[in-house]
Amino acid sequence: MSISRPSTPDEPLNPETPSTSPASAESASSGSAPRHVAIIMDGNGRWAQSRGLPRIEGHRRGVATVRRTTELASRLKLDALTLYCLSSENWKRPKTELDFLMHLLRQYLIEERRTLLEQNLRLRFIGRVDRLDAKVLREVERTQKLCRDNTGTELVLAVDYGGRDELARATRKLVQDALDGNVSPESIDESAIAGKLDTEGLAEVDLMIRTGGDMRISNFLLWQISYAELWFTQKCWPEFEDADFHEALADFGERTRRFGGLVSS
C-alpha cells in the first residue's frame, strides 16, 4: 500500500505542478493498468470543518471531484469505477446531513445525464437502493434507463451499501435457490456466490483508493477487494485531483501482483 504526501488545511491546490504528470502516469500504468478501480471518498466533512465551513459544503465540493474523477476514468477507458457514496452505517448521521446528501444525489443524477451520455458511461447502483426516498429512486431509474445502451466505463455508485449486508443478501438468495431445488448445497462455490452479489458481472476490483487519511476499508466491497491493491492518501476527497488519480495508477503499475502464488523468475 502507498500513502501520498499529507496536505494541510491551508495548503493551496496547484494542478499545474502535479507530483506525477498525466502523461507519465498513463504511460506508467499502460502495461499493468487496473480494469476496475474503487474509491472510498472520505473526508468531505473534515475538509469543510478545517476551513470553518459547514460539513454540507464539503459534500457539495465532493460532487465536483466525482465529476472530474468520472470524466478521467472515462478518458482512461477503465472497465469500471465504483464510488462509495453512502454506507449503510451512514444513516446514523444527523438527519439534516442525510437529507442534504439525498438532495445532492438527486441533483447529480439530473444534472449529469447529458455528461453520462456524452461520455458513453454505463450506470449501476449497488446497495439497498430500494430504501431510498421515492423522489431519489425515481431519478435513479430515469438515469439508468437513459444510460442503458451505453458501452463505455461502468460507473458504479454504492448507496446505502455495506459489504456484510451484501454478503448476507447473497446468502439468502442462495438458500432460497436451494430450498426451491434450483441448486444443491454441494454445488455452491465462489462463482455461485459472486453471481448473487450486487456487482454480478463486474471484474473484481484491481485498485482501491481511499482519501481522507484513514487506513481501513470500512465494510466496502469485502468480497470484491480480496486481491485488490490498496492506495491511501491524506488528501480529503474535495482536494483529490487528476494528478492524485494518476499517481495511484502509476503506483499500481509498478506493483507485482501474485494472487497468493509466486512470481516466476
Automatic annotation (TrEMBL):
Alphabetical list of Pfam families matching this protein: Prenyltransf
Keywords on record: Magnesium, Metal-binding, Transferase
EC number: 2.5.1.-
Biased composition (Low complexity): 16-33
Catalytic residues in the record: D42, N90 (proton acceptor)
Cofactor binding note: Binds 2 magnesium ions per subunit.
PROSITE patterns linked to this entry: UPP_SYNTHASE (PS01066)
PANTHER family according to UniProt: DEHYDRODOLICHYL DIPHOSPHATE SYNTHASE 2 (PTHR10291:SF0), DEHYDRODOLICHYL DIPHOSPHATE SYNTHASE FAMILY MEMBER (PTHR10291)
Family named by the database record: Belongs to the UPP synthase family.
Subunit structure: Homodimer.
Protein name as it appears in the record: Isoprenyl transferase
